[in-house]
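Render Alpha-amylase in 3D.
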Amino acid sequence: MSLNGIMMQYFEWYLEDDGKLWNKLKDDANHLKELGITAIWIPPCMKATATNDTGYGIYDLYDLGEFDQKGSIRTKYGTKEELLEAINVLHDNNIKVYADIVLNHKASADETQRFMAVEVDPMDRNKEVSEPYEIQGWTKFNFEGRNNKYSDFKWSWEHFNGTDYNQETEKSAIYLILGENKDWAQDVAEEFGNYDYLMFTNIDYKHPDVYNHTLDWINWFIKETKVDGIRLDAIKHINDWFIKDLVLKTRADFGEEFYAVGEYWSVEMPTIESYLSEVDYQLDVFDVPLHFKFHAASYDASNFDMGQLFNDTIVSKYPLNAVTFVENHDSQPNQSLESYVKQWFKPLAYAAILLRKDGYPCIFYGDYYGTLGDNQIKPMADILDKLMGLRQNHAYGRQDDYLDHKHVIGWVRLGDKEHPKGCAVIMTSTEAGEKTMNVGEMHKGEIWIDALGHTDAEVEIDEKGNGIFLVNDGSVSVYICRD
């Protein structure tokens, strides 16, 4: 991550199925650079179940919008040629590209196969609720439209350990596939007894052919696209040792700077801490506990203690492994993990991830450009532009915290040699307030004003570097020296 880098998640769940995202991203590259965006997280760029699939129903990892499969050549976001053009233009603008990688499951198989399986309890996948019997499952992937280009590997039932549908009886259930060395992975989340199985047809990384094929694929993919990093989807459902091996192998092939961040969706810090230990801290993780604090504060501000905002979060305990975020495609309204942060609180939340010393902040496309679908998120580009500009120019150096009140909190950044200006941040989740904060004796006699324009207060810095900073109801202000 570059100094004061910013990642942007460049998609939301309800984007139109028009194949235009890669071209939009290419055209937007220079604007993103000016904002201070240093990396773009793109959606899954591989062929999925159909063009209206956001990308997580993965069909063929080798089809980046090149082959006529699943009803089209393009993906939801465009063709392979357009994808590569967008990546090249982003690189020309010194913006790195992180690809969303979905390795937990495969979807929309080409043929059914017959094999032995047993039904398990959805609430406790370790508990069998039927006798073993033969089912007809969608597990054969031939990729005939690709015709063996790039790889001749064909997926079959023995490469999976779970599925969700028996074609013969048209019954939906969670089926544990039976066979030699077949069981749920034991190195996964313990929710529902064992959370190896998530959806579709579940990949079995204990199978040596699957293990080797996936490592071969990631090598091909990075060479083909020249991406700078990966966002690993649903890692709590995948063997932790496999994720570690994948990241280590990728860095061995492409350099230690190759970036990896994983999505481990849990608010339980001990669980996340255990996972980071198991993967030897080789990847970053999204700070889901911090996101849920934003969510809670936005819904019940009077009872939420803002002084504890950063306690028991990844960014506070593991700052070098934390990707901080406010919203994403899973948390937005009407999604399976919906935990939407109310609009009024978002300026406070974004200030909390953009203007602090620790964490790698990620801006959500839907917050910047707005979302489609029901319960739309309104675009908030104006405030985000200001906050990103402040991150670029002012949020450097030592950080002194004033997290000493249930509702009114603040911190100062004292600047460094290259960025000596510094800033003072104050926010409140309830009524207006004020806080005396010290910005350093070097600023004595200066007048500081709110760069966000939320208050017109003028704060004079005294001989000791103190100022009395004001904030309006349910708002955030960021004070800098008036030029």
